[in-house]
Design goal:
7 strands; single chain; alpha+beta; about 140 residues
């Protein structure tokens, strides 16, 4: 399981579809923001339980609520498609923090920074990585 750390910027969802997105900014200094898919109702209830002031009038999400700007640890499902779980940084157990830090140290020692010549963005890869395009602009690399 890979654990990430990010700051919540926004939530966007439609109760009819069941799928939503969390806009997250990477806490590791890459400066990158990304949308991750999540299950709408479950994520809203978890945000409400963790931070409060999330569910607004008519069961809408209050994007000015208590979750915007909060830092979380999170993981994705086994297929890396949907948010699996999150924990507010201030509520994280010492075991989770240790796991995250050890994971980051292993990655940092084995990673290589790549800069896309098309868009100029920087991202990290490692020996054996099979990605063949930029994470930002999808320009082929290699």
């Amino acid at each position: 399981m890979e654990v990430y750390k990010a700051t919540i910027l926004a939530f966007s969802g439609n109760w009819m579809s069941g799928i939503a997105t969390l806009l997250l900014e990477d806490s590791e200094g890459s400066g990158g923001a990304s949308e991750i898919f999540c299950e709408n109702a479950q994520t809203v209830r978890c945000l409400e339980g963790a931070f409060g002031n999330v569910i607004g009038e008519g069961h809408t999400v209050n994007n000015d609520g208590g979750f915007v700007g909060k830092e979380i640890y999170y993981s994705m499902d086994p297929m890396d498609l949907l948010l699996e779980c999150f924990t507010p940084v201030e509520d994280a157990s010492p075991e989770l923090i240790d796991y995250y830090n050890k994971e980051r140290n292993v990655f940092a020692k084995s990673s290589i920074e790549i800069i896309c010549i098309e868009c100029g963005c920087a991202f990290y890869t490692f020996k054996g990585d099979t990605r063949n395009m930029c994470e930002n602009c999808l320009h082929p690399i290699g």
